[in-house]
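pasting for ref. prot 1 ->
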Amino acid sequence: MELTPEAIDLALLQQVAVNASPASKADIEIFTQQLGREPRGLLGVAARCACGTPAVTLTAPQLPDGSPFPTLFYLSLPWVVKEISRLESGGEMQKYNELLQQDPQLLANYQQAHESYVARRELLAQIPQLSGVSAGGMPQRVKCLHALAGYALAVGAGVCLVGDAVLAEIGWDWEKCKCAMESA
């Protein structure tokens, strides 16, 4: 069975990502504008801005062409993407890698976040090529702050503490829309 938005009910979407909702035609148009292309394998909206604008895609583990796709949650909200790109270009990934080495509790959370990511994706499909693969460098290192922030937005606070910290660094607020903000 091909995994499509029509084949997935809201309960399953929210098992994968607590903040998930179905994608409307308007949501798909917004994602297309945000990404500069039509989203591939889109199953739903994994998280939204306070204003309701889609912020993170929920993507099938296998694309319609049969390609495995490990990135379950893809960050798309432009101001978040831009701010996190700024952090990455400033060397923040190294800071988080050092924190993982220094803080056994943070490292344990990161391992648990990895396992949770894999389990969430496997609720949708078990793809042999993706066995044990998550995102953002988990479970050993921080490789992509965008992936970790998208994950944190999709599943809520406390699951991926590194993603939570990245969102705090950029000033994410579930109650305030910053979609129209231009970074200084």
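and prot 2 ->
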Amino acid sequence: MSPSHKNVFHSPASESCLAVREVLNRVGDKWSVLIVQLLADGPKRFSELRRTIEGISQRMLTLTLKGLERDGLVTRTVYPTIPPRVEYALTGLGRTLRKPIESLAKWAQDNRELIQQARNRYDGISS
């Protein structure tokens, strides 16, 4: 398809889906959700986040924090000490994610058994 014909298939609905997908790619991964939840209690140092988040590698934590910072959800503050101290905190925009994440977590907890039952039925497993 030539570049001039590309926009023929774009509609407001498809653009909306693209916007939602881009945001969910950032905030929908498990590490971002955990980091937002941890930073909801206040600023944290990198090492504190790393110790608290079981299973995350240093590289993945770094990449996730950079992505959250790029999207305006987290700020990174470097303090001129020796060694330098770096803290991460939620921005105003990042704080607005708390309620949707808490709602989704509550929904998951409330429906966990029903989802497992549906999976068992689908997989042909009797309970």
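The longest helix spans residues 98-123.
The chain has a mean pLDDT of 87.
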